[in-house]
Amino acid sequence: DTAVSQTPKYLVTQMGNDKSIKCEQNLGHDTMYWYKQDSKKFLKIMFSYNNKELIINETVPNRFSPKSPDKAHLNLHINSLELGDSAVYFCASSQSEVGRTEAFFGQGTRLTVV
Amino acid sequence: AQKITQTQPGMFVQEKEAVTLDCTYDTSDPSYGLFWYKQPSSGEMIFLIYQGSYDQQNATEGRYSLNFQKARKSANLVISASQLGDSAMYFCAMREGPNTGNQFYFGTGTSLTVIP
Q1: Secondary structure of chain A as H, E, C letters
Q2: What's the mean per-residue pLDDT of chain B?
Q3: Of A71, A75, A108, A111, residue with least CA distance to B45
Q4: Tens digits of per-residue pLDDT, B35-89?
């Protein structure tokens, strides 16, 4: 059973389109994240949710809107896609307390905007 | 200031040799955790090892060990007896207390190549 699953794995779309990436975790974690990994492999936090509440909203264009219908799901919707949005997007989850509570990552979604 | 600094963009190591990947961190929080992840060319993020700020001993997990020097704020990863499958990107990460929203701060990564 996959711990953190995100779909789709690959997404190729045209500029201006709207797309969604889904993420689900079956680990019972209370915190979920979206990270963006650019072409230089840098991992940047986009959003963090704790028990369905938005905790972190980094400087991300408001074209990006996360939605957490429940603790196990955190979806990412992107409006009006731009070329610069091309990247790998990772969903992750963890328990909130500090300790040996590593983040578990989904397989990543490679988004290519053409 | 960067929370996590990895100063080695790329490293090479001979198969069966040991290699150290550097990581320094910056925090004023007394309670934090340090993590290392491996990202092979296939793209997934694999957790390797954890070190807590209050842990007295350096963490070890199989061929991975973490050289934790708290006063110097460094958490270097040591891979012993390198294997070809160790070729990957390696990321150091830190997590502070709840005031920072539970997020994991990542370094820029080190690309390790194991030479046969």
Answers
A1: CCCEEEECCEEEECCCCCEEEEEEECCCCCEEEEEEECCCCCEEEEEEEECCEEEEECCCCCCEEEEEEECCEEEEEECCCCHHHCEEEEEEEECCCCCCCCCEECCCEEEEEC
A2: 95
A3: A108
A4: 999 999 999 999 999 999 999 999 999 999 999 999 999 999 999 999 999 999 9
- Mutation site, A30, A38, A41, interface B, largest B CB count within 10 A: A41
Residues 6+ apart with CB under 8 A from B115: B12, B13, B14, B15
Of A55, A88, A100, the CB nearest to B102: A55
Single-letter code of the amino acid located at A30 = D
